[in-house]
Queue: 2 jobs
Job 1
Amino acid sequence: MIFTEAKRYYVERRAVDRMLGTRSDSFEHYFGRLRADVQGEIEQFVNAFTVNETYFYREEHQLVCLTSDLLAARLTVKPRGEPIRIWSVPCSTGEEPYSIAIWLLENWPHVDEYDIEIVGSDIDTDAVALARVGVYGKRALMRLPARLVDKYFEADDGASWRILDDLRQSVRFTAVNLVDRANTRLHGKFDVIFCRNVLIYFDDLARRTAAENLFENLSPGGFICLGHTESMSRVSPLFDVARFADAIVYQRPMR
Amino acid sequence: MPLIRKPPSAAAPQTAAPALDARAVLEALARGNDDERWAAARAAADFPAAVPALGDALAHEKSPTVRQALFSALARIATPQSVETILPFLRSDDALIRTEASDALLAMRDVAWPFVPVLLRDPDASVRTQACVLVRDMPSPVAVSLCCDLLDSEPDPNVCAAAVEALAEIGEASALPALMRCADRFRATPFLEFSIRIAIDRVRSQVLNPRA
């Protein structure tokens, strides 16, 4: 992750939060604790810096593209019987992978004919824990039609809704560091990866490494969807641009 | 409703391969197929001693995918030796390879930066042009003065144009006199005069409205 001078306040505020959280009376004291990774402080520190602002059905046009074009393209080259694997990384608190699951159930007529494995992963282990719980407030559900909220959630109280168990069990959550190759490889190969709004936080080298890791995590011919302000062409020449009616995505060449 | 009809562990194909040791990396770089060379190039980033082998591999590599991994490995090793291994590829006849080399240097900017002033004086105009792009993309307190010095002495208008483009991005008020002198020197080269006019306007507007 790279933070410019303009982000000084953002960094300071989070460092101070962690100093308070660990009852460190000086930065030197806290820095020593961080370097020695006392009680997993590195993970806590990383968690403090991640941005977990998202909502259901964000960038819906990519979901439309998934069911209109991407899955059909994958099925033409996948051996029959192999599961379709979709990776949402980073998945934050789970809104994106659950959105993919709901979208498929609602919009893909072949949903019952294939095993579909959806994996949500994030470096922020607190976010992953919340994703597993699957409880959301009104703001996260603002784009989801009320009909779908009624169908896939149960009201916890007046202010939060819990994903139904069946749907919750359709998504597997893991912790992952996108620039750690050994870590990403463990997740296997995917047909479609949603990797939105994370590469912009990396420096050049980390972006290259992450792009190469994602390349390895895609089956030949598999697709990767980035955030609407991102361009893989500026990060790495490894992928082809694939233009569809609803979205521009990137594709690992077949060979 | 469940999307999975059998346990995920049975459905998930595994890709984790055993880690390569240094000898296996060198062997695969030299004699592997495309997939093996790609894997070896990625693994080579953990072996700084592999820099010469990465350079040899780059010189012969035909696959753009593997080449990308070779450049990345050198960038991750990030030593002066890896910079020196990449520099000859700035002279490649293939524009794609020149760009890949330049991108790899940008990915290890702290180690690559000391080489940039030398590249700005290279006898080859296309290398000097690439160096101007590096100056633009590697923020440094001396970047503006390096471009200004080049503008005062550079005979090739295309190299000057690259430096002008860099100054349009990173320039400050101190760059304006050098830009004007360059415009005077190349009055007979309309495209350069035009570029300089745009750059001067841009620098002036940045001076008046500095970005946060």
Note: The longest helix of chain A spans residues 60-75.
Job 2
Amino acid sequence: MEQLIATAGLGKRYGKTDRVKDLDLAVPEGAVYGFLGPNGAGKSTTLKMILGLVRPTAGTIDVFGRRMCSRNRLSILKDVGSLIESPSYYGHLTGEENLRVIQTLRSVPRQEVDRVLKIVRLEKQKDKKAEHYSLGMKQRLGLACALLGNPRLLILDEPTNGLDPAGIQEMRELICSLPKQYGMTVVVSSHLLSEMEQIATFVGIIREGELVFQDSMKALYEKSSISIAVRTMNNALAAELLHGLGLAVRRDEDYLLLPELSDEQVARCADELQKNRVGLVRIEERRKSLEDIFLELTGKAVSL
Amino acid sequence: MKALALEFYKTRGRKVWLVVFALIAVQLLWMLWSLRSMREQKLDTGWMYFLYEFPALNTLMMPVIAAVVASRLCDTEHQGRTLKLLKTVMPAGRLFGAKFLCGSIYMAAAAVFQVAMMLLGGSLKGFRGAVPVQKYLLYLLFTVSVSLTLLLFQQVLSLLAENQMIPLAVGLIGAFAGVFLMFLPKQLSYLLPWGYYMVLEGVSLEWNKAAGVVRYHYVPENWFGLAVLAAVFLVIYLTGRFLFIKKEV
């Protein structure tokens, strides 16, 4: 799969502190890439660097296979729509007029404005001044701006920030529909794992400026698989016996961890242990939730 | 061109023209007041009188107008946090240029209205002698040159500072500094951009204390002063544009 965004050793240093450090981001084409991390982890800075709004102090950025520099930046960005942090809008202009400004600057056909208004369902409020919009409507206007010209790549930074549950749901559905309907690749950042769970196909998790996980959502789920924890009076012998049954055994403090097993397999293990007089004291099913993994990876409590 | 047209599109409903008209209205009131109290024999030197008085009036008022116009044009970008969007769809340098051109049109219009008002007022009052067209054209040129330099300076401040109180305060302080410089030796006016309405003044006053006679006379055009101003303009433009492009949003 082609990488639409590939960064190598990307870094941003403010004074003596590294806001972003040695970041190797890889966003495959057609993905909804969830860029996760706690507040202040460096998500916005990274996305701004990709858009050329902030200059990196280290590393390189390739977008659509082209090395980004100040000279080709705008020609690359012609095919990139973005919504960074809060939406950008002229409060004294109507929704439609706001879009008109960006449509003109992007040199895309006038009909595009109506098309994106329809996608974000703002066509009925297009004649209202943007300053009178609710936060959710402003956010949708920002998304409409980003969608002008049907870009190949969409970069959305915390698009659900400040929205009510209904607004979040709506934004989520919109984002999900984009790759399928318009063939876009979407990078969407969030500090909420639960949000990404339902929309992302790929995830990158950033912690204090460093990437701590990057893979498909499936791979992240695999980390959350079920395991069977066994505690005995003699763990060393038990491990040997269970290994003899062909099971992969890991030690975890006072417990032995086995992969997910069927009830019959568990019963067989218990039998085997009993036969050899290894006192079995606990058998538990353990499930690491995505939240646990996120917590483990980021070292911070998950924001709710 | 497209960028300039968009700047005007964005000023819709921002009432920037109101600022220009407010300036003209105040200056008109001042002119009516000074014409009313004008004595018969002063009609001979009326055209010169205007060219002597208006630069001082501009020193006091134009810096404020420039600050307000620049702020109206730039503040809208800060308020709506639009720079981070605009900088991804157009070169920052072009935005800087388009904004300046847009503001320039307002400032140039203010100067043109002012000259038109002077000519109309003088004619209606019955100033004697033909209108010194060349002198008034030069006055227009010098006024626009100083106004645009001040506008440029204000635009740089307004774009770089999110809090618009800073550029507005600078404009106000500049206006006072300009007025203050009038009471000091003329050479000192070269030091601040706000002093240039007086530096480029085309008429000077001779006051014979003993005879109690006031005489106006034209002074040679101060091309050197204009050249210094142009150099200042260039430095502000290039530095301001560079800082704006470099600014991370």
Note: The interface with chain B takes residues 48, 51-55, 74, 77, 80, 82, 84-93, 97, 100-102, 104-106, 130, 145 of chain A (CB under 8 Å).
